[in-house]
Specification:
Spore Coat Polysaccharide Biosynthesis Protein SpsA, Chain A; single chain; nine-stranded mixed β-sheet; alpha/beta
Length: about 325
């Protein structure tokens, strides 16, 4: 066996079923089926168990099912890594569809490049529904709905100034986790739902500080675009959460001050209102996104402050010990 494919899932059994079928096809495209699947259910209702059982019964492919702490994706990924016995771990998401030659091309990449971590190509699928009128090309360039990672046309090594890969299509040698540690489970406890997605980035940044990360253009995973990802609420919530994470990952002297953020937030919201009245809806949305990020950063600063006060109280620094 070469790979263990780890899929963390939370309350999306229908999409998980599609992801599992595509992953099994990718495994069966390899000689001697040199991979196994581990599904880690971090949903509070353990909804993935029925999807896994149905898939096993329908396709006849064994799948290991594991449960972990609710919602905490980093904990779910670590729970999956804990049961891995293969030299490589392949990660994808429960709403993604690996290409049939995904793992086969990853094997070919391993034979060519000596790296401990490498990413595959991630592409957003074609949409089969009408996009909202406010979603213009400028907003699409920064879009949580259309997820993609294709930095180069050919396989190779990632430059250090390139953005880090997404966890929806990444391959990690098992001993890399032993060397650098697993995913940071404290992210969830520090910033709640804003942690989703940051665990992949934090891990990749930590590894890249010491080792080069590779890129396999041929190892393709498709990321379907769903209608609920193209709503105003989804966009604003996504960028708000990005703002919440900002104070947690940046050192204090690189952060904007709270008064400055309140000022820019107010200005952006005012511009959004005027743009809306002029029926310039894409422009209004861009201003709303700027305001949402500023609100998120202020909220993130408050979370950091509360966390620091809690630590001081627990230690008896400047307050009564609890």
């Amino acid at each position: 066996m070469i790979f263990t494919v780890v899929i963390a899932t939370c309350n999306r059994p229908d999409r998980l079923s599609s992801a599992l079928l595509a992953t099994i096809e990718a495994i069966r495209a390899m000689d001697d089926e040199q991979a196994v699947i581990v599904v880690v259910d971090n949903g509070p209702e353990v909804s993935a168990k029925s999807a896994v059982d149905d898939c096993i019964e329908t396709v006849g492919f064994p799948i290991t099912y594991v449960q972990s702490e609710s919602y905490n994706k980093a904990a779910a990924l670590n729970a999956g890594i804990a049961v891995v016995s293969t030299p490589w771990v392949a990660f994808t998401d429960d709403d993604c569809l690996p290409d049939r030659e995904w793992l086969l091309n990853a094997c070919r990449y391993i034979e060519r490049f000596d790296v401990g971590v490498f990413s595959g190509r991630l592409e957003a699928s074609q949409v089969d529904f009408a996009l909202p009128h406010w979603l213009d090309n400028e907003i699409l360039d920064w879009s949580p709905a259309f997820v993609d990672f294709a930095p180069y046309p050919e396989s190779g090594l990632l430059d250090t100034d390139e953005r880090v890969p997404f966890g929806a299509n990444i391959f990690v040698k098992k001993d890399v986790f032993e060397k650098f540690g697993g995913y940071d489970e404290e992210l969830w406890h520090r910033c709640g739902s804003a942690a989703l997605g940051s665990e992949d980035a934090e891990f990749a940044i930590r590894v890249r500080a010491h080792e080069t990360i590779g890129y396999c253009a041929e190892a393709l995973v498709m990321h379907p675009v769903s209608p609920e990802r193209t709503t105003i609420r989804y966009y604003l919530n996504h960028i708000f959460q990005s703002g919440v994470r900002e104070p947690l990952f940046c050192v204090a002297n690189e952060q904007a001050s709270t008064p400055y953020l309140v000022k820019t937030m107010s200005i952006a919201f005012g511009h959004a209102c005027f743009a809306y009245l002029r029926r310039e809806y894409p422009q209004a949305m861009r201003y709303l996104m700027d305001a949402a990020r500023d609100v998120g950063e202020v909220w993130g600063k408050l979370r950091v402050l509360r966390s620091e006060r809690s630590i001081h109280c627990d230690r008896g620094d400047g307050g009564e010990s609890r």
